[in-house]
């Protein structure tokens, strides 16, 4: 009688896992492979690895995971929801579990087991505090995720870091680096941020007690992340469950699932290599931003009507007026005359040092200031208003919403709506009878803001200006949705595999920015 080997495939957001059991449920083969958004190629590779080690055996398999449904259609095998798969494995191998904490590439789950019942909680539209979040933070430390773990082993002090959003966290981490904080301390603080996000976001006040199992790739590969969980939850040794192969538990559940399909590894590889369906290739594109150069030129001409006038600083005499916008990620400075002509301007990143940034710009201003020109008045606005005003004795501080309104009304008298997209915030302002009547802001998520766009531009090896220019006449803007940076990072990788150009991605992100403004800030109920 031919032996059948129970097999499970887990296609996650960032990895493909393959497990094969013999008839005694002994694990004879396993692979954990990053797919870099090319699920098909990664799956073929792990099956070829299996054949190389064990030959072309008969497999009885099922598929699970957030990216597994399309693959299940291609190779014609049953799909099992990953929560069910995980529960199957827990019940078979670690039935004493009271609480399961699992971190994946872009998801986080917590399951409470109570007298035969299960209560599952998982992250929604924010992937802060997951494996991909750690990858993003690792890039700031110029190491990989395992490098973060090695650094964290020698930490001395923890610092508060936002884990709700990769963009916000970046702004917490960069100043720490600029201040010379030990990278070891930052690494451990990143892990602590993940712990805080998981407990606050998923437990939501429910006490985590009893035997706690730690599952998923990040918790398997990063010992210091586990340690931060254990210390934060104050778990005793007997309550810690760290099973063998926790990174494979979901795949193991698929292998143990009752409904399976029998195939050989060669059959599966053949199905994947000869697949010409759209199951793994989403073709989701949108209209071009501009149909042609003429339409773009018309747009630019229309918007150029509100352009400020410039005047050479060397030709100016007497009083000048200084305006500073100390934003969350950038510093903007203008020097104008009494007629509103711009004598000097600057727009650049603050590199996490708003005060230092303004000081350097002002040094440049004074170096270029003619002998008979003086700064009569100065005003600061933005995130760093109070810091800059106190540190540099600026004359006035102005709330940025009022600064926006005054400038908008200057260029467009009678303006009644203003949309501002900043480094980490969005504001929608309505004006009635010459006064601000309502202000709506983005909340915990900073997707669609300036730093969000900058992150993708840099990941594609472009600066922001060049990146945005490529969007204007892109042929096939891709639909990237309006989710957070971490989720969208995976989506971008996916469309790259489909042949999307940098321009297509940039144009898609442009759509995403507006969707975020409409749905998350203005909160439009109906698209029309």
TrEMBL record:
Q: What are the required cofactors? A: [4Fe-4S] cluster
> Entry's CDD domains?
ASKHA_NBD_O66634-like_rpt1, ASKHA_NBD_O66634-like_rpt2
The UniProt keyword set, sorted, is: Iron, Iron-sulfur, Metal-binding
User: Its domain of life?
Assistant: Bacteria
The question of whether DNA-binding is a record keyword is answered with no
Question: Is Iron-sulfur one of the keywords?
Answer: yes
Q: Identify the residues that the record assigns to the ATPase BadF/BadG/BcrA/BcrD type domain, covering every copy.
A: 8-257, 322-517
Molecular function GO labels: iron-sulfur cluster binding; metal ion binding
Cross-referenced InterPro entries: ATPase_BadF, ATPase_NBD, CoA_E_activase_dom, Dehydratase_Activator_Redct
Matching entries from NCBIfam families are given as:
CoA_E_activ
The protein, known as: Activator of 2-hydroxyglutaryl-CoA dehydratase
Protein species of origin:
Lactococcus lactis subsp. lactis (Streptococcus lactis)
Lineage of this protein's species?
A: Bacteria, Bacillati, Bacillota, Bacilli, Lactobacillales
């Amino acid at each position: 009688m031919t032996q059948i080997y129970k097999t499970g495939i887990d296609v996650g957001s960032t990895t493909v896992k393959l497990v094969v059991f013999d008839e005694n449920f002994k694990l004879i083969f396993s692979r954990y492979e990053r797919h870099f958004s090319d699920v098909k190629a990664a799956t073929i590779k792990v099956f070829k690895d299996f054949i190389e080690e064990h030959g072309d055996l008969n497999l009885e398999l099922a598929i699970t995971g957030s990216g597994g449904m399309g693959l299940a259609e291609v190779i014609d095998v049953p799909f099992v929801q990953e929560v069910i798969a995980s529960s199957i494995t827990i019940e078979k191998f670690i039935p004493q579990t009271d609480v399961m904490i699992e971190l994946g590439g872009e998801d986080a789950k917590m399951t409470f087991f109570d007298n035969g019942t299960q209560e599952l909680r998982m992250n929604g539209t924010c992937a802060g505090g997951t494996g991909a979040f750690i990858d993003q933070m690792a890039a700031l430390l110029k190491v990989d995720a395992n490098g973060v773990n090695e650094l964290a082993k020698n930490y001395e002090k923890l610092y508060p870091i936002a884990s709700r959003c990769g963009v916000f966290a970046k702004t917490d981490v960069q100043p720490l680096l600029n201040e010379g904080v030990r990278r070891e301390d930052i690494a451990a603080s990143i892990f602590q941020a993940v712990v805080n996000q998981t407990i606050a976001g998923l437990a939501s006040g429910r006490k985590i007690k009893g035997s706690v199992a730690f599952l998923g790739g990040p918790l398997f590969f990063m010992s210091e992340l586990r340690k931060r969980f254990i210390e934060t939850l104050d778990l005793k040794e007997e309550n810690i469950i760290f099973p063998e192969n926790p990174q494979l538990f979901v795949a193991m559940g698929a292998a143990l699932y009752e409904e399976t399909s029998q195939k050989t590894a060669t059959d599966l590889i053949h199905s994947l290599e000869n697949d010409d369906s759209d199951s793994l290739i989403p073709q989701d594109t949108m209209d071009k931003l501009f149909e042609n150069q003429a339409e773009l030129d018309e747009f630019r001409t229309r918007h150029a009507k509100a352009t400020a006038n410039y005047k050479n600083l060397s030709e100016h005499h007497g009083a000048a007026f200084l305006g500073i916008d100390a934003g969350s990620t950038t510093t903007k400075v203008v020097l104008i005359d009494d007629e509103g002509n711009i004598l000097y301007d600057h727009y650049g990143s603050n590199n996490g040092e708003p005060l230092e940034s303004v000081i350097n710009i002002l040094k440049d201003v004074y170096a270029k200031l003619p002998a008979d020109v003086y700064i009569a008045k100065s005003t600061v606005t933005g995130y760093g208003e109070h810091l800059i005003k106190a540190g540099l004795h600026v004359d006035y501080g102005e709330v940025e919403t009022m600064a926006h309104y005054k400038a908008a009304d200057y260029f467009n008298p009678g303006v009644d709506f203003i949309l501002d997209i900043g480094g980490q915030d969005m504001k929608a302002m309505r004006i009635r009878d010459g006064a601000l009547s309502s202000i709506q802001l983005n909340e915990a998520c900073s997707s669609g803001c300036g730093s969000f766009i900058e992150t993708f531009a840099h990941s594609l090896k472009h600066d922001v200006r060049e990146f945005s220019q490529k969007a204007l006449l892109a042929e096939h803007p891709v639909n990237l949705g309006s989710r957070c940076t971490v989720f969208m990072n995976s989506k971008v990788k996916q469309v790259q595999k489909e042949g999307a150009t940098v321009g297509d991605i940039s144009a898609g992100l442009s759509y995403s920015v507006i969707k975020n403004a409409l749905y998350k800030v203005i909160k439009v109920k109906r698209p029309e």
